[in-house]
Predict the structure.
Amino acid sequence: MAVLAWGLSNVAARFLLVYLPPLDVVTLRYSIAACLFAPILVRLRRLRCPWSDLGWMALIGLFGVGGFNLPVTLGTQWLPAGTVGLLVATEPISIALIAVIVLRERVSWALPAGIALAAAGVTSLVGGQALGAPVPGDAGVFVRGAGLVLLGAASWAVYAVAVRPFTAKYGPVTSTGLTTMLGTLPLLAGWNTALLDRAAHLGGAAWGSLVFLGGVCTVLSTVFWNYGTAKTSAARAGPWLYLVPLTSVLGGHLALGEQISASTMAGGAMIVAGVAITQFQPHGGRSGPRRMPSTGQGGAVPGAIDTSRRGQDNESAGPGPLFPRAGR
C-alpha cells in the first residue's frame, strides 16, 4: 500500500495543480499531515526531548518538507507525473553521495557505475521529452521543471541522512512526525484569505486528493512502511521501492492520459537500473558506523549514526533504500 500511495502522489499533485497554485498544494497537504501527527506531541514530556534535538529536527524538517516538496511541486506543473516519479527516484544516489562525502563510508565500483547509468537515464528522459516539446519554448520550461524536481530530490537526500540519529533515538514514527510538524510551521504563513477562498471552492475530487496526499501518503504510508520493514529484512523490503516510479508512470497514463514515450521508457529503465546498482555493496565494502560528536545535552549532530540502539529502531534508518519516507 505504501509503495502504491507514494507512486500515485505525483499523479494527485499534478491533478491538484489544475485548481491550486503549488504553494497552496504544499500548505494544505502538510497542514493535514501535521494535524494527524499532532498526538505525538503528547509523548514529548515522557520522551524528555531536549531543546537542542528539537532545534536540529526543525532544521531537518525544512529540508524534508519545504526543501523537497516546494521545488518538486513547482516542477510538477510543467512535467508529466510519470516523469516526476522517475526523476525523484534518483534520491538514493544523492543519499549515497552524502554518505560517502560526509559520513566517509567506503565506496565500491557500484556507486560511480550506478551514478553514470542513472545520469544517462536522466539525460535521455529529459532530453528526449524536451526535444519532443510540441510548442517552441516548451523545451526550456521542461528542463527547468526537471531541474527543480532534481533539486527537491537532493534536499530529500539531506533530510534522509540527517534524520537517522533521531530515528534511532526516538523511533521512526515519532521522528517523522516531529520533523514533519516542525517543517510545516513556515508554511503556515501561506494561510490567508485568498487560500481559504480557494480551498472553500474546491470540489470533492480535489479535497480527496489533498486528504490522500496528507493523510495517506505522508502519514499512513510512513507508518505502514516502517511497520513492514520492521517485520522483514532490508533485502526483501528494499526492492519494493523500485515500484514507485513505475506506479507514477502508469498512474499518470491511466488517470491523466499522459503518453508513455520511448524516451520515457528508456530513460526510466536506466534511472531505475542505475539506482539499483548503487544499492549493491560487496560484503565488507561498507565501513562501520562512526560515532560523531554530540551537540551536548543529548543532542546529536545531523548525519551521525547512533549505535546505542542498534537492532531496534535503527533498522529502518540504516543505509540503503530503507530510509524513513516522511512527507512523500
